[in-house]
Specification:
about 260 residues, six-stranded mixed β-sheet, chromatin regulator, 6 helices, two-stranded antiparallel sheet, vWFA_dom_sf, alpha/beta, DNA damage, mitosis
Length: about 260
């Protein structure tokens, strides 16, 4: 930002240099451990409860449609996480039909026992170099569903080639799980690998609408973000009572009549 001194008593003017936002290549990595089949507190039209995986699919479709409305040049690819990471659809593209087709192959696995993010970070770093060569940014959005399994990885903090966002769906704390420890481990992972400001959002309420609100926050472009500590949305929509019109004064009535 540059300041231009005005002449005479005119206030100074500021000009903001134009910067180009890079197109995004966004890699969704969905945790398909057995905990992704935990039921949410909402049901479909057939009366069957949604699972976390059902709600995740809804959220990703909302994200992709919205992101393409913002910029049709954004591209998407998909991977799954069980013990390690596997490609679901490797080629980045903007075809919504391709996204829906990829979801047909998205299903939960048996309990994995561990979650190794090393391969995810290696894949992302490799793809990030290809994206950078095209003047683009790579972002990874990890959707994690395990309440008692901390992810592990081998990575050096010097390698920051992509941005990592995390959406963490978990059970409420109990004697058989430790979601706070898992959350803390995810925060460390995010801070270790992220090139730009990465966001980590979580929900233990089992509400699909909370997941959808969170996924909308992740629509923000990494180059335009503020620190997560300063993010104060989405705000709760508290219903306020309507304001009663103030009783008109005598002067008000006279003015109204005079204006007829």
């Amino acid at each position: 930002m540059e300041r231009e001194d005005g002449e005479g008593s005119d206030p100074p003017r500021y000009t903001l240099e134009l910067t180009r936002l890079c197109g995004e290549d966004i890699l969704f990595c969905v945790d398909v451990d057995a905990e992704s089949l935990v039921e949410m507190k909402s049901t479909g039209s057939n009366g069957r409860p949604f699972t976390r995986l059902d709600s995740i699919k809804q959220a990703i479709l909302l994200f992709v449609h919205s992101k393409l409305s913002i910029n049709p040049d954004n591209r998407f690819a998909f991977a799954t996480l069980s013990k390690s990471v596997t490609w679901l659809r490797k080629d980045f593209n903007s075809d919504i039909d391709s996204v829906i087709s990829a979801f047909r192959g998205l299903s939960a696995t048996s309990p994995s026992g561990s979650a190794d993010l090393t391969h995810l970070f290696r894949l992302a770093a490799h793809e990030a170099k290809k994206s950078q060569a095209q003047g683009r940014l790579l972002r990874v959005i990890l959707i994690y569903c395990r309440s008692s399994t901390k992810p592990h990885y081998q990575w050096t903090a010097a390698q920051k080639l992509f941005t990592l966002d995390v959406m963490y769906l978990h059970d409420k704390p109990g004697p058989n799980n430790c979601p706070q420890d898992v959350y803390d481990a995810l925060v460390v992972a995010l801070e270790t690998v992220s090139e730009y400001e990465g966001y980590i959002l979580e929900s233990g309420h089992g509400l699909t609408r909370v997941l959808l609100k969170c996924i909308c926050i992740l629509l923000s472009h990494p180059q335009q973000r503020i620190a997560q500590d300063f993010v104060d949305f989405p705000k709760s929509l508290t219903k306020k009572p309507p304001l009663e019109p103030a009783a008109g004064t005598a002067d008000d009535k006279i003015s109204t009549i005079a204006g007829i």
